[in-house]
Design goal:
Two copies of one chain form a homodimer.
Chain A (H helix, E strand, L loop, with lengths): L37 E7 L3 H21 L2 E4 L10 H6 L3 E4 L7 H10 L3 E4 L2 H18 L3 E2 L10 H8 L5 E7 L2 H11 L4 H10 L8 H4 L2 H15 L18 H9 L2 E12 L2 E12 L11 E8 L3 E8 L3 H16 L19 E10 L5 H11 L4 E7 L5 E11 H12 L9 E6 L5
Chain lengths: 440, 440
């Protein structure tokens, strides 16, 4: 999903900046206390992601101040209609680039990095076409360039490749890095045609009015070019990544393959092959046991393989506005956070126990008339609601297996004590927690 | 799995250190070039994980030097029989603590942090009992304390909670954080008794001779105490975490619940509940659609939920020696790596294309005698081996669906061209990649 690009056309002001920046900062700024150093965030672009980011930062500003010692403050965002990039740059500790596209984003990001300002961006086109120049500018000035939101939204694949696995010998990175196409393929698996599935994706906000960047596979190719660079220390331009989209796929093929135990995904792969590096994006059938086969709907999932780690799989929602904004916030906080140890707890929560849970209950009993009523009565007295009951066996050696809806453990224990006292019970009843799907 | 603890009894030297440290450094040290600044790693403990870490670091030393500018060098490890902690501390840029247990590990880690030396540890007991004191020592000196390997091995849950999600409002962290018990429960689901499953886990190296720390749930409880602290800024001591193990579980219960669509896992949970924080470890049944339900064998998986991110799930092998060593290496490299941009590519790989893949092939054709032979012949000429064939329909409007084993795309295209020329074909054949399970 490329909703991080929905603000692409929001900014056209040039680097010299002719319009003026409003002096009134937004949101969190107004809460700055005397003595607290503000951390000024220059926001470029105010589309879907830009506005979601500004709102999320305001909501989390006090928490961020607590863990970093500085209150993040967003000034007025640069848009096509207002704001001056040079003024924003001058007044910021870090720049968040959510304009999308190549220009003017490239000029702005390079100018910011060269000025030693940290940059957080969600711009996969820019990184997949000009990544090396940006990385070089960051290294030269010592500024940080962070871009988790450019790949798989909240799925922290950039951080894991650049940090957790910086020392590792990676064999393969592959996965589902476009939520739009994964949603469409999930719909087609359920019988929709491509056109129906696309229309559904658009109506649910998972595909843009012009979906070509996503459905052609080009969005995924840009992401795989960036991941290949990070995993294999090899610069890869998007034009070097062969990609194939999903527009030509037939529901028939998905159905036939399903009979063979196969499910269809748009898979991006970067792997060591034949002494070199192979990077590509293609629709591919996976057997049902494959870890990526069960990733359905607008989700992303990436698996990293290396001999020493075996494999790590990370999954989560593909980039929606709020999810992309969360990834940007994570990167921003990382530029503010001294590495080391967790901040001291400022507002710890009280520990609570005896929380509610569903339960499985197993009873060995003689199957007498009224037995179930007695058991159900003991449960009902404690407020337990029975979800399902299965009896195994008959007569003197029956077993009753029940699932009850969530109730507090103390109440369940009380009910079990009452049940254990019933004269037809043949052993102490056993209980095991059940996590209900509704909790998800 | 608590294999990171297998070296628990390796060191008993006291803080004053009476034995002497060999002057001859191991491995990577001998490769240091003039002009290259070594990064000296003081290794405490040389059990399963310690020795795996030393070997892995030697293997990856040149790569780490390339990305960090400093060559990591491990001196002789501190063990019960040799080494002086004060001398190791004095001569090290960072300390890797793989002794396990509380003392002398606690004294060593506190001494190192107080001296401003970064510490990487896999010691979940220490963190779940004395975490705040260690965090405070790290903050006071500005040294880093990293401990990814203490939780879920290579699954980067500590890094994601402390960095990617540092600004987030987390609602729940839950998952499978003990590989030993997950392996045993997987075996019991296949019909083994608890005793049989435990014996199998021990024979495969997934359980220790004394498995009580794992099977009692205490190992998972220590990990959940630490995760709760990171996710909810609330200090939690292991003694405050109610936990229940798997020793008392009956194969019968697993089988009965299976009929109800439920699978059994040992689940650790830390979540906001009733205005406070609930942290616990219990066996729990999950419905088959639950993301944790499909995590089988000695694997770990953790899901983090928050409104803004929806949820992120991370999975990978529970800590074996090499996996734990990899997590330690990732943390070590993070202490050496300036944050910012990827290192310049030093040894980029050549890009290769036309790599092999399995393929699904769909052909609309008139079903004539010899048709399959002609198709198979065209594929055979290109070296394609047929894995399965299904025919749909009969006569003039049949469809043939095939899966072929991996071959180069150019050869597949050549075969499809030949097949397309056959006179009984009714449309151009279609091909879609198939990722074979053998690749995993």
């Amino acid at each position: 999903m490329s909703s991080s690009e929905t603000s692409s056309s929001e900014v056209s002001a040039d680097v010299t900046g002719r319009s003026t920046l409003s002096a009134a900062p937004l949101g969190a700024a107004t809460e700055a206390q005397p003595g607290v150093r503000a951390f000024k965030v220059g926001l470029l672009g105010y589309g879907t992601v830009g506005s979601a980011f500004a709102a999320l930062l305001e909501e989390r500003a006090a928490h961020v101040e607590r863990i970093t010692g500085r209150l993040p403050v967003v000034g007025e965002a640069l848009t096509t209609s207002k704001g001056s990039f040079p003024e924003i740059l001058e007044g910021s500790d870090a720049i968040v680039e959510l304009i999308g596209g190549i220009e003017p984003a490239r000029d702005y990001v390079l100018a910011a990095l060269s000025a030693g300002k940290h940059v957080i961006t969600a711009n996969k086109q820019l990184l997949s076409q000009h990544g090396e120049a940006l990385f070089e500018a960051a290294r030269a000035s010592g500024a940080q360039l962070r871009f988790e939101a450019a790949i798989a939204g909240v799925v922290p694949v950039v951080r894991v490749l650049c940090e957790s696995l910086a020392g590792a010998h990676v064999e393969r990175v592959h996965g589902i890095v476009n939520g739009t196409t994964n949603f469409i393929l999930s719909e087609m698996t359920r019988g929709s045609t491509y056109a129906q599935a696309l229309a559904e994706a658009q109506s649910q906000g998972f595909a843009e009015a012009d979906p070509s960047e996503d459905v052609s596979g080009r969005d995924a190719a840009a992401k795989m070019a960036i991941l290949a660079r990070l995993a294999f220390d090899t610069p890869v331009h998007i034009d070097e990544v062969p990609y194939e989209g999903i527009e030509h796929l037939k529901t028939d093929d998905i159905q036939y393959a399903r009979e063979l135990g196969l499910g269809l995904k748009l898979i991006g792969t970067a792997e060591r092959r034949d002494g070199g590096l192979s990077v590509s994006v293609h629709p591919a059938f996976l057997y049902s046991g494959h870890p990526l086969a069960s990733v359905n709907g607008p989700f992303n999932a990436v698996t990293v393989e290396s001999e020493a780690i075996t494999e790590i799989t990370m999954s989560g929602p593909g980039a929606g506005g709020l999810q992309t904004a969360s990834a940007v916030l994570g990167d921003l906080v990382s530029t503010m956070l001294p590495p080391g140890a967790p901040a001291p707890p400022a507002d710890p929560l009280p520990l609570v126990s005896d929380v509610e849970s569903g339960f499985y209950i197993h009873m060995e009993m003689a199957d007498r008339p009224g037995a179930l009523a007695a058991v159900a009565g003991a449960l009902g007295e404690q407020g337990a609601s029975i979800k399902s009951v299965v009896q195994h066996g008959l007569g003197e050696h029956a077993r009753l297996v029940m699932i009850v809806h969530p109730l507090a453990e103390t109440r369940l224990r009380e009910a079990l004590k009452r049940i254990g006292d019933l004269d037809f019970l043949r052993s102490t009843p056993r209980a095991i927690r059940v996590i209900e799907e509704e909790y998800l």
